[in-house]
Predict the structure.
Amino acid sequence: MTTTEAAASSPSRPAAARGPGPNLHRRAVLGFSALGAGAAVALGAVAFMAWLFIRLSWPHVEPEGAPLFGVSFSCNQMEYLELEDPTLGREAVPDDRPGRAEWCAARFSALLEATGAPTARLSAEWSEIEPEPGRYDFTLLDALLGAAERNGTKVLLTVGMKAQRHPEFYIPGWMLERTGGLEGGQVISDVPELRAGALAMAAAVVRHAGTSPAVDAWGADNEPFVVSSRGEHWEDWRLGRDYIDALVATIRANDPRGRPVSVNHGQHFVMDRRWRWALDAGDALAASIYPFRNDSILGRPVVLPILEIGPLAPNYAHQARTARAQGKEFWITELQAEPWTDFDVHLVTPANPSRNLDHRKLERNFEYARRSGAARVYLWGGEWWLYQRDRHGDGSWIEQARAVMRD
């Protein structure tokens, strides 16, 4: 038999040996298509659920209220913006310079006049109030309260170890020397001499400032349940709940008019339940709210809308309802109204705006506040508005704040 004959007479090879046929190709294509479609449907369902969670979260479904809007003010921050040279630091603008109290009161008054703020938040800084053991100096505080009285502005006055702005803890140097040094992570309110000194100072402030007709509420420390990590000498100090209870009791005992005492908390995610500690301690639960945070994704800077992450975001409307159920109020003692920068805020100008906060985002913050159930809202950033107006000719921030206070 020839080779040709053998090949012709041999049985045909099985189909599998000849390679995949058209039906198998079709089934593979259909299988991959179905897998891709299923993945797309699953991703679509996840995206829809995320969108639904966000759209049904409190910032979108709660009714708008009509809170009383006001401002916060810090003399230190005003000096930092308008007087300090970043290359020289604070030493170039000492706190004991002649005319400091008058300058600060004038800038505070300028802010109140420009915005028409009906209420303002101030802090009594311990290092300012008690420069030497047992000697109280109310010069600056009296000047600020006098400005509020002349403008018809009511004041929420915070007293304690912590106050607004950097470095948060305003403990006098002489007291730090007496304690022999405080360690990182320490509950410093457990140091007997420090605790006693802070409570004595708070009693003196309440007795003195309580005579001002401008003061209509108190704050027991500033974010007392937030660990402070500000600078080499202020890292990781803590305050105990028992100290805050004692501070609230001290304020009440020295205020014959029985004005409400608020305790505020800065919460980042819903898992943080320490707001309940603040609610239990005072007459009003207060919050620090910064809806826009700087972050990076794959190395690219982004601004995250924290209150738009659905069930992970703090539920301030729930906190407000919980407070009211206990016969208490819910306030926002810090609402972001200036850019949160990762660099010197002096560099934010009309020619170099910050992506973190613009006028549109600020309007969203106002809406968040209205939907939170807050009775009072103190805008954070009034010093920066003055700086933008007087140094850079941009009065738009003040006008936007003034508009919300007129509503």
User: Anything to note?
Assistant: The domain at 66-406 is CATH 3.20.20.80 (TIM Barrel).
